[in-house]
Amino acid sequence: MKSSYEMNVDLAQKVLLLPGLDGTGRLFAPLQAALAGNLDTTAIAYGDERLLEDYVETVAANMADADTVLIAESFSGPVALALMSRFPSQIRCAVLCATFAVSPLRFLCGVAGMLPTWVFQASPLRGTLIRHFALNSEIHHDIVPEVMAVVRSVPDAVTKSRLKMLSRVDLRPLLSSIKHPVLCLRASDDRVVNNMLCRQLMDGLPNVDASTIRGPHMLAQTRPTECARAILLFLHGKKKDS
């Protein structure tokens, strides 16, 4: 890998968790529990932002003046990339979990932006899609009910707006300018973010390391212990074979 980082977790002034498509931050509970005692984290909750810049401003308002650590999953990966480009002096490093510089399924996300809002209501079909694509049909009796409760809590119009935004996301032009140490956490069996998108992201970043964890797209929820270990090794400046 192209990594050359030297860090100390104790120097981090703030560790922010940037959520996936739900935007609530509630689904970080397993990862926060796994990190407890080693790292204090704050989960960001999004509101009714419309543009990528709106999400960037929401997170920026919660950052410290220096040495902020960003841990971003899926939907929020582009937000973290934009933040590192725009506020380089305030950010120490970033962990990008099962995410991308160019959004997956761009065409479908664009189509989603043209569909009526009622299509995005929580339904048995939507639950089936989440189980198949985000959880790989694994049985997680403790996770699935919480995931579905969170999905139901997000207004349909907000979900539609986020998918529409994703259809326009392409942060590749910014990657070479981001000099921060970055850890890419990759899910070995990710049905949302494919290998090409992972490689695209990593090839564009100058100072990147990777850790592949066996599991589905929702790594932070299904493999929190493994994610926590990889994150702590990265923040302490220790290499881990990917």
Structural class computed from helices and strand pairing: alpha/beta
Largest sheet: spatial strand order: 2-1-3-4-5-6
CATH homologous superfamily label of the domain at 9-104 and 170-235? Alpha/Beta hydrolase fold, catalytic domain
CATH-defined architecture of the domain at 9-104 and 170-235: 3-Layer(aba) Sandwich
Compute the number of strand runs. 6
Strand content: 5-15%
Q: What low-confidence regions span 5 or more consecutive residues with pLDDT below 50? A: none
Number of helices: 11
Return the CATH class of the domain at 9-104 and 170-235: Alpha Beta
Shape: globular
Biggest β-sheet, characterized? 6 strands, parallel
Distance between the termini: 9 Å
Question: What is the residue-averaged pLDDT?
Answer: 88
CATH fold naming of the domain at 9-104 and 170-235: Rossmann fold
Topology order in helix (H) and strand (E) letters = EHEHEHEHHHHHEHEHH
Radius of gyration: 17 Å
Helix-residue proportion? 25-40%
